[in-house]
Amino acid sequence: MKRIVPALLLALTACGAQPAAEQAAPTSLTWAVETQPITLNPQQWSQNKVRLLVFNQFDALLSRAQDGSFGPWLARSWQVSDDELTYTLELRDDVTFHDGATFDAASVKANLDQFRVPGYNAAVSSIQLRAYKEAKVISPTTLEITLTEPDALFLDFLASPYAGQISPKSLKSARDLKFGGPDLVGTGPFVLDRYVQGQEIHYRRNPAYNWPPASAAHQGPAHLSEITYRFLSEAAVRVGALTSGQVQVIEGVPATEAALIKKDPGLTLHTALNSGTSFSYYFNTSRPPFDDQRVREAFREAVDVDAVLRSVYQDTATRAWSVVGKASPFYDASLERAFGGDVAKANALLDAAGWKQRDAEGYRVKDGKRLSARTFASAAYVRDRRDILAQAVQAQVKQNAGIDFQVKIVDAGTAEKALDENDYEIFENSRGDSDAGAALNLLLPGKGALNRTHFSDPELEKWIAEASATSDQARRKELYTKVQRTVVRDEAIVFPIYVPADQIAAQRSVQGLGFDPASGTPAAAYDVRIGT
């Protein structure tokens, strides 16, 4: 067996610990968030902006640092066999769930096996846990996990929200397991005790908490005695609530308000790029008009992305050039300036594709049909003014190339129906996976759970599969570079637009705010405190 993380790293968990007498006095905090959660079950998590809520209530088995390395959390250490098929976890023996149940090897096995329940989370089962074979309880603090094949994404899973540990009792008794909520029990620094749909979610401090990862700024219970997250979807309302003192922290700061916050001496502003994939438009190649590569390329060339981002985000957004986000170690910088913004080329491509005629409204037509493309965006996932961004793109492709781009913001059911029935032309998406490889496995293989382009290429799938199986990071980067160049440059099935980022604005008295090192999203509230 080769040891990856020795148990002596536990000595690091004492760093920064404060004696009980020095703990901050009980305090409460109100934080306004942009997105209301679809689910509070960490194993069902799908909204990047909900990550900060998940890690208030649940802990993962491993932690992850800014440089991508893994560290202990609920697992004190782990070993990986030479053939990379067996992972042996040594678990902490001092952890309890919020319901009083003991965290142990049996509870971890129960959480892993939950993913095998049909329909529980097919995407995770097919990607992060695709090679999971079985887990054996060796002792109360030792779990042996066997894989069917080497999997470079498995450690990433153990450090992700999906590995948030849920009390086995509540896994069986929760009234709504898919959603989670107050009756789904974790081990985290806060206990969820109130959820009011459309209004707020409330957590109280877990007084027994004493097992944060070594990277935490302190040890013991959280500084805050309670925290309330208010759901305020309108950016102007969030900013107004902060400047008026109704809330002490907000996330999702619009570009139009950033300068105002920076000028206010009583406020602070923090920002970070997200990991994972860029926000991109994915062209549905299985139906017209994007079954023709010339039309796919023309759509991209018709958009001056820099001008669009400048108008919508006022120079605060980072342009994307690849499906992989710029913060990822796998990002291929050679794609920069490889496409986009050439109106003459866009029109020449459309002429060559047979879209030469125009109707009375200026849209291109062929065989009596207008050159149209629709996107169905689920309202629950619309963030960062993406609706306004789509309108700006809509205006450019009409003016510059005569393309009728129809933007439809709909409920989740309507969006899913359009996708299931293949009744759309553009799929918009970004993913916040800490390892971009997980996202590529979902989005690009022919049978990927989120393959909405319906593009399939055996060589591309071979590269993705090999990258998932090797732990050699240099080799993974080489393979993912080939993948990016294929889908962006060679086949033009992806139109990268911007790299998602998160912003936090707060009253200056609020300290300890930061971003999750793995994802770039706002960190949970464990280290947050109110100073003088």
Largest sheet: number of strands, sense, barrel closure: 7 strands, mixed
Any idea what the CATH architecture of the largest domain is? Answer: 3-Layer(aba) Sandwich
Which class of secondary structure composition applies to the elements? alpha+beta
CATH topology of the largest domain: D-Maltodextrin-Binding Protein, domain 2
Task: Give the SSE layout.
Elements: E1 2-5, E2 28-33, H1 51-57, E3 62-64, E4 70-72, E5 75-80, E6 86-91, H2 105-114, H3 122-126, E7 132-139, E8 142-147, H4 154-158, H5 168-173, E9 190-196, E10 200-205, E11 226-231, H6 235-243, E12 249-251, H7 255-263, E13 267-273, E14 279-283, H8 293-301, H9 305-313, E15 318-319, H10 343-352, E16 357-358, E17 364-366, E18 369-370, E19 372-378, H11 386-401, E20 404-410, H12 412-420, E21 426-429, H13 436-443, H14 458-469, H15 473-490, E22 494-499, E23 501-507, E24 510-511, E25 529-530
Parallel strand pairs: 2-11, 2-12, 19-20
Antiparallel strand pairs: 1-5, 3-4, 5-6, 6-8, 7-8, 9-10, 10-11, 12-23, 13-23, 14-21, 14-22, 15-22, 16-17, 17-18, 24-25
Helix pairs in contact: 8-10, 9-11, 13-14, 14-15
